[in-house]
Amino acid sequence: MTAVIEIKNLSKSFGSHEVLRDVNFSVKKGEVVCLIGSSGSGKSTLLRCVNLLETPSGGSIIYNGDNILDNKHDLEEYRTHLGMVFQQFNLFNNLNVLGNCTVGQQKVLKRSKAEAIDKAIEYLEIVGMSTYKNAKPRQLSGGQKQRVAIARALAMDPEVMLFDEPTSALDPEMVGEVLKVMRALADQGNTMLIVTHEMEFAREVADRIVFMDKGVIVEEGHPEQVLVNPQHERTKEFLKRTL
Ligand code: ADP
Ligand code: MG
Fold this sequence. Notes:
Membrane topology: Peripheral membrane protein
Subcellular location: Cell membrane
Low-confidence stretches: none
Main location: membrane
Bound molecules: adenosine-5'-diphosphate, magnesium ion
Protein name: Amino acid ABC transporter ATP-binding protein
GO cellular component, one term: plasma membrane
Shape: globular
Number of strands: 10
Mean pLDDT: 96
């Protein structure tokens, strides 16, 4: 299997604070990779470096064989291949559900309004939110907002979906509906990189688990291997606190 995204020797510092150090990993086509680790270990920063919301301090991001940090690449174009779902939804509050799911398609992908609406409805149906197409974000529950955010990202036809703790801001009763949608996306073969604290979900859905601690990847492997039979003391400590 070829890697869609390959991260090599990635580092990131904020001033003198080194947040990521020599991070190496890849996401292959159709693979679901779950990134786990304590708060402050650098998971969000890593995801933000992957989609260039943060500029890495060093290393490479190889996208389909090209290092997109080598100055020759159109970073905006690269970004359109990545869909991002944030903990806090980040919906446009002034737009309704349909507007949220069409604005990027029209502005960035230059799709016609009709085409953008068709796509939006298609994905809103997949996440079970098409009947809310005229609602404003403030009229929705957290779980509904997150499902719209997922549909919005999918409507851009990204090659990789990035999720940063998509259920951490939700009331417990809404976590399930979002995980169900994500599970379906995984089953359909979407390529996904997911930061999550939902260990049961990660164990069931991930092809690979990557455990980060203090800015480095400590351990990675098959879910059964990392979650059930961890090799490193730091992984064991983390899992003891989490499970
Ligand atoms: P996680 O997502 O694993 O909880 P983060 O990537 O959010 O971790 O943060 C890792 C470290 O980087 C933390 O110590 C955090 O304070 C620091 N950090 C993150 N973003 C910034 C920033 N924009 N400026 C300075 N420090 C930051
Ligand atoms: Mg985070």
